[in-house]
Specification:
The protein has 94 residues and is mainly alpha-helical. The protein is built from five helices and no strands. It has a domain of 49 residues. Helix 2 packs antiparallel against helix 3 and helix 2 packs antiparallel against helix 4.
């Protein structure tokens, strides 16, 4: 059976992705969590005000904010590419 899994070093991110990640990784993860909580609060407020369409629209922002926060956290912990090895992390695994 053929193994289709991508191994570390098999694929590299392009420079556009690396540039975006260099800026977004500076954003604290709590910002994304705060944005998700604010979206929930805004959605509830719209629902109470009987603005159902606005409540649904804003309520759908919660998941993307949380996903962006997870992506941000992964980039901070593992970097853009598996080919880039952080010497500090490498010494911890020995």
């Amino acid at each position: 059976m053929t193994d289709y899994r991508v191994q570390p070093g098999d694929a590299q991110e392009d420079q556009v992705t690396a540039a975006i990640e260099s800026y977004t990784s500076k954003v604290p993860s709590s910002i994304y969590l705060g944005a998700a909580i604010a979206s929930i609060a805004a959605s509830v407020t719209f629902k109470i005000a009987k603005r159902d369409h606005a409540a649904l629209f804003v309520g759908q922002w919660v998941a993307p904010f949380l996903i962006l926060g997870l992506y941000n956290k992964i980039v901070k912990q593992h970097g853009s590419d598996a080919t880039t090895v952080n010497p500090t992390l490498a010494s911890q695994h020995e």
